[in-house]
Specification:
9 helices; mainly alpha
């Protein structure tokens, strides 16, 4: 059933914007925006189609790479705009230029928390429709259902190699892992481990946590500190290829997952190519 849904999505992905739009029921806000901007959208779509066709022609028939970065816990305007940077009191000129040269997509079903945001982006559906509307901060025992069709699966069907590096946070059950949701290679923590970062003295010093650090902790009932572990050392990272078993690894900042000196991004691309040799030329 999932393969059928993915195939249908690929057909829709390849269809013209006009034909696709006719099959989608949008929310009321979209129709208001469309009435206001419909003519300019149509002109922009035509220009983008021409640019993509030219790119494919100059790139051996291959489409452009897609590089997506998701950053948690930042506000609107923290990055990408010089005007809004001035409100924050700092500058991000390189990221601003990157934003100007790309396409700005400012409309998406999401909430101001990580799991619903990631699910909405990966599936194109409102998170509550698949039970992923809340953010879990511990080992939860649930996740994105295997039957969901993700953006990574759609891109795989049209010939892309797919790689995920870093926080996943869409479930800690096997079917929810990125390598079972369309990615050829992934290096990620199985469950959300951000909470571990608040269980030590640094967080207490910043008053994120109370009753942990020496500065705000009443130790009159404490006999010893034998059970005070370094929470940052409890983080567990794994890596895997599509459909395979995960392998626990010890990550170090800037290093490769296996302890070698191969940069992590090069290793990821190599693993993705090994997982999908027929697509090795499209990275």
């Amino acid at each position: 059933m999932k393969d059928l849904l993915a195939a249908l999505a690929v057909i829709a992905f390849a269809a013209s914007g006009q034909a696709l739009a006719a099959d989608i029921v949008h929310d009321a806000e979209y129709y208001i925006a469309a009435a206001q901007n419909g003519k300019s959208w149509k002109a922009e779509d035509k220009r983008l189609d021409q640019e993509l066709a030219e790119f494919r022609n100059n790139n051996g028939g291959k489409p452009p790479n897609i590089f997506y970065i998701l950053i948690d816990d930042i506000g609107f305007g923290d990055l990408g705009s010089e005007t809004l940077n001035s409100i924050r009191g700092y500058k991000t000129p390189s990221i601003n230029q990157f934003a100007r040269e790309g396409m700005r997509m400012a409309r998406m079903y999401t909430e101001p928390s990580c799991t619903p945001t990631r699910v909405a982006f990966m599936t194109g559906r409102q998170p509550y429709r698949n039970g992923m509307g809340n953010t879990s901060v511990d080992i939860s025992g649930f996740g994105l259902a295997g039957k969901e069709v993700t953006l990574a699966e759609i891109l795989s069907k049209v010939g892309y190699n797919t790689v995920h590096i870093g926080k996943w946070h869409m479930g800690d059950i096997k079917e929810a892992w990125p390598t079972f949701q369309g990615f050829d290679y992934a290096a990620f923590p199985i469950h959300q481990q951000g909470q571990l970062t608040i269980f030590h003295d640094d967080a207490a010093d910043e008053e994120v946590s109370v009753g942990i650090g020496k500065n705000n902790y009443d130790d009159r009932f404490t006999i010893d500190e034998w059970l005070r572990t370094d929470a940052s050392s409890m983080v567990t990272g794994v890596e895997a290829v599509r459909g395979g078993s995960v392998r626990e690894v010890h990550m170090r900042t800037g290093g490769a997952l296996d302890g070698s000196q191969v940069p992590r991004n090069e290793r990821a691309l190599s693993e993705a190519g090994d997982a999908a040799p027929a697509q090795a030329g499209r990275r």
